[in-house]
Each structure stands twice: as C-alpha cells, then as structure tokens.
C-alpha cells in the first residue's frame, strides 16, 4: 500500500499558504473568517500528521497562531517558495566538491538566495564562504522543487537552483561553523550519508560535467 503521507504534507502546505495569501489581500469580513477557518483546519491536519495519526492539540494551536501572525498585507504577504542556490564543482581529477553539513549529511555547497545578489553570485559566494575555493558559475544544471522530490517535510517549502561551476583557484578550508568538513570525491567513492534522492542531482551534475546533458533540468508540469 502506497504511503500518501508525503503528499498529504504538500497538500497541507498548499492550503495553508493559500489561506495566508488570501488574508494578505484585505478580504471582506466574510472571507477573513473563511480564511482563518482554513488556517485552523490545516493546522489541525498538520498536527495529526504523525506516525500514529493522533491529534496534538497544543501543536495545532501553535501552528494556527504562528501562521496567522505570519500574514502581512498585500504583495509581501503572498506566500511563495524560498530559493536555495547550489554549486557543483569538479576538479581536474573529475572529483566533485562536497561539504558535510552541520546536520551530518553530505551535499554540494549551497545556501539561501540573498537579496542584492544574482543567483550566480550567490553560488560563487557560498563556495567561497563554505570551502575557501574560488569558482565561476558556467551554466544552470537544474531547478528542483525540493518539496516534490527530495524533502517532503521541507520547511519552508523551497526550490533549489543548481549551478555547474568552473574551479578557478583558492585553497580548501572548510568553514568551521557552517560545515563539518569538505573535500573532492570521485563518483565511485562518495561519502555517506548524502542528500541523494530522485531526480538524482549527482547524475545530472556528472552528465553536465561530461558534456552529456546539454539542457537544464526542471520538474515537469
């Protein structure tokens, strides 16, 4: 039997985002009541989304209050996914640069998009800050819906833009706070555990590096 819990989590996220956005655009009193009721219902659903399907009323109340407090008027209150930026970097031995994140999993250098920076600038900045290496973004490998494929429990819901980058120089010095280590690894000797779920970003990065993937990946409509 298929476990639909991940899909339920996405549906809950969608409905609560719609309710927050509705409240942001100065609805009538009647609609305010309906949107607030939607927030309460989705908070209750979210607080029941556990292994035993048992409602946690305190959690439901906290979620409802937090989501309502997050509402701001107008366009700033329109709920959209956040954006993460990642960088795939290979050395001359065709090894991929990976960092061990603070939670213990390995991944490419990545971080949230920053205001005032172009996405490519963020990619280069994250590599420099997390590893000490200097890179130039060359092309976009893919744009990934993290909620759809990789992290069904992703909070906040976000997209990740993965750049293929040219290694220009610098010395490998893993950031002492943001990482637990960093290094270059061959495709046949990758460290564990890794963030690696379908669609496989490592396969995409490797295909781009080898010249086998010429088009940018994106999740199908």
CATH level 3 topology of the largest domain: Nucleoside Triphosphate Pyrophosphohydrolase
Low-confidence stretches: none
Shape: elongated
The structural class is alpha/beta
Spatial separation of the terminal alpha carbons:
26 Å
Strand fraction: 15-25%
The second-level CATH architecture of the largest domain is Alpha-Beta Complex
Strand order of the largest sheet: 4-1-6-5-8
Task: Assign a percent range to the helix content.
Answer: 25-40%
CATH homologous superfamily (4th level) name of the largest domain: Nucleoside Triphosphate Pyrophosphohydrolase
Biggest sheet features: 5 strands, mixed
Order of helices and strands: HHHEEEEHEHEEHE
User: If you average the pLDDT, what whole number results?
Assistant: 90
Number of helices: 6
CATH class of the largest domain: Alpha Beta
Integer tally of domains: 2
Radius of gyration, taken over Cα atoms and rounded to an integer in Å: 20 Å
**Total count of strands:** 8
């Amino acid at each position: 039997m298929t476990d639909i819990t991940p899909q339920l989590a996405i549906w809950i996220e969608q409905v609560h985002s719609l309710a927050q956005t509705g409240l942001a655009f100065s609805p009538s009193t009647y609609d305010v009541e309906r949107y607030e009721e939607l927030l309460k219902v989705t908070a209750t659903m979210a607080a029941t989304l556990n292994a035993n399907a048992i409602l946690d009323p305190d959690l439901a109340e906290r979620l409802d209050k937090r989501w309502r407090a997050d509402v701001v008027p107008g366009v700033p209150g329109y709920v959209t996914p956040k954006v993460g930026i990642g960088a795939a970097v290979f050395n001359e031995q065709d090894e991929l640069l990976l960092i061990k994140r603070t939670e213990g999993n390995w991944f490419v250098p990545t971080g949230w998009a920053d205001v005032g920076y172009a996405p490519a600038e963020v990619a280069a900045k994250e590599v420099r800050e997390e590893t000490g290496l200097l890179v130039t973004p060359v092309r976009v490998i893919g744009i990934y819906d993290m909620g759809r494929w990789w992290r069904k429990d992703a909070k906040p819901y976000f997209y990740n833009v993965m750049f293929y980058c040219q290694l220009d120089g610098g010395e490998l010095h893993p950031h002492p706070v943001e990482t637990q280590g960093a290094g270059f690894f061959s495709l046949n000797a990758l460290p564990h555990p890794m963030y690696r779920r379908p669609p496989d970003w490592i396969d995409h990065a490797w295909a781009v590096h080898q010249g086998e993937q010429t088009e940018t990946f994106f999740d199908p409509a």
